[in-house]
Amino acid sequence: MLGAAAILGLDIALHPGAAAQVRVGAPAPAFTLPASNGRTVSLADFKGKTVVLEWSNHECPYVGKHYRGSNMQKLQKKWTARDVVWLTVISSAPGLQGHVTAEQANKLTTERGAAPSAVLLDPKGAVGRAYGARVTPHMFVIAGDGMLIYAGGIDDKPSANIEDLKTARNYADDVLTAISDGKPVAVARTRAYGCTVKYGS
């Protein structure tokens, strides 16, 4: 795994999903960010709803796996159709890999057939740091009462290989299914994998 990353020249990090700044079972950090559609979005807007935060960087091969393989789009469409709020967050700083303008973010959404509830722009990295988002993709799920109930990887295959999607256990889908079925979340923390979030200094 690490050998492949070295060959690709990727900045990769594997770490416990529950970051030091946030704790599963505790209130999720409040935030307000501009969305690519020109609106302003706050976590408080979605009280009573399940919210997914997906940290993204379109230039990251690990993110690319999930979009080129249509995995992320399928999850977005499946769960937003069930009244889950799906927020894609971009914390890359200006001039660094993955940074986009609102217009570029909208274009990417259209080109990839993505279907998040909104794409949020966090170029100063304040929200990313508050959540301890360290890689892309890094997933967080927030319950309707505002408690963080999942933090970690999207699945259990830490690679950039599309073929691995076929045999992966998708943690994000498992968590959302449990919530939908009124069952407890079996796995609340996992190791996130991918390219490090490109925060500014």
List keywords for this structure.
single chain; 201 residues; alpha+beta; Glutaredoxin; 5-stranded mixed sheet; two-stranded antiparallel ribbon; 26% helix; globular; disordered N terminus
Percent in helix = 25-40%
How many domains make up the 3D coordinates? Answer: 1
Question: Might you state the CATH topology name?
Answer: Glutaredoxin
The CATH class, by name, is: Alpha Beta
**N- to C-terminal separation?**
29 Å
Strand order in space, largest sheet: 6-5-4-8-9
What is the CATH architecture annotation? 3-Layer(aba) Sandwich
Structural class: alpha+beta
Outline of the structure:
The chain is an alpha+beta fold and 201 residues long. It contains 6 helices and 11 strands.
Structural commentary:
With 201 residues, the chain is α+β, with helices and mostly antiparallel strands. The protein has one domain (2-196): Glutaredoxin (3-Layer(aba) Sandwich). It contains six helices and eleven strands. The strands form four sheets. The chain has a five-stranded mixed β-sheet. Helices cover 26% and strands 19% of the residues. Strand 2 (32-34) and strand 3 (40-42) form a beta hairpin. Mean pLDDT is 91; it is low at 1-20. 44% of the residues are buried. The chain has helices spanning 2-8, 61-68, 71-80, 102-112, 126-131, 171-180, and strands spanning 15-16, 32-34, 40-42, 51-55, 85-90, 118-121, 135-136, 138-142, 148-152, 191-192, 195-196. It is globular.
Helices and strands, with pairings:
Elements: H1 2-8, E1 15-16, E2 32-34, E3 40-42, E4 51-55, H2 61-68, H3 71-80, E5 85-90, H4 102-112, E6 118-121, H5 126-131, E7 135-136, E8 138-142, E9 148-152, H6 171-180, E10 191-192, E11 195-196
Parallel strand pairs: 4-5, 5-6
Antiparallel strand pairs: 1-10, 2-3, 4-8, 7-11, 8-9
